[in-house]
Amino acid sequence: MENENIKNLHDDEMSFYDVIKIMSHYKIFIFGITLIIGLLSIIYVMFKNPTPIYSGNMMIEIGEVSGNNYAHAYFDNVFNLKTILEKEFSVKVSIPEVYNRLVGEKSMDDILILSVSDKDKNSIQPSLLKIKDFIIKRHQEKIKLYDKYIMTQQIGTIEIDDKPINALNKKLIVLVSFVIGFIFSIFLVFFLEFLRKIKR
Predict the structure, then answer these.
(1) Vertex 175: Cα angle to 36 and 192 (nearest 5)
(2) Which whole-number Å values give the CA distances from 190 to 21, 23, 37, 176, in the listed order?
(3) How far apart are CA 54 and CA 65, in angstroms?
(4) What letters, b where the CB count within 10 A reaches 16 and e where it falls short, cover 32-68?
(5) What are phi and psi of 111, to 5 degrees?
(6) What does the pLDDT profile of the chain (200 residues) look like in tens digits?
(7) Do 33 and 187 touch, CB atoms closer than 8 A?
């Protein structure tokens, strides 16, 4: 009985030669499935042309205030200001982090990066400037309370991407589709072989 089980186990094992033999037998099937999935991906990327969406960024440095009777402080807490801006405008606000050996990643207390996305590339800069004006006016109200201050300001220039952020990487999609098609076809081949053995 034990010898029969060992024999059956050896019969069920598949050598590398058997794998190559099966794949060779189904080579047309494998090629066909791979080709079909690859061609479908080519058709997809040819007809899938999403409306381009562009993105622009602006960096804002929050102003500092100090006075004879006041401790050093910023006009705004960056986290509170981030929440306010994202509620008031269609903007994504991020707070950059710097690496400090002692404390690890640490958020910067005075920098905001504003990101605006739009179908109309020409409307991005006016949108960012509008948000900047909102911040400046908000902080100008606080200037009167202090003897010394450094006003909130824009750092660098507004950067607007020339390439749409939703552009399809057509070559990558097609390449991945052919690879997936090849793997899927091999899976089908061995599944069919499995069914064929069961029916014996």
Answers:
(1) 45
(2) 12, 9, 19, 22
(3) 36
(4) ebbeebbeebeeebeeeeeeeebbbbbbbbbbbbeee
(5) -125, 135
(6) 444 444 444 455 567 777 788 888 888 999 999 999 999 999 998 888 888 999 999 999 998 877 656 566 788 888 999 999 999 998 999 988 765 544 455 456 789 999 999 999 999 999 999 999 999 999 988 877 777 888 999 999 999 998 998 888 889 999 999 999 999 999 998 888 888 878 76
(7) no
Residues of the chain with CATH 3.30.70.1130: 54-160
54-160 has which CATH code? 3.30.70.1130
Instruction: Give which of 174, 188, 176 is closest to 39, Cα–Cα.
Output: 174
Other Cβ atoms closer than 10 A to 26: 19
> Could you write out the DSSP letters of every residue in 132-152?
HHHHHHHHHHHHTT-SEEE--
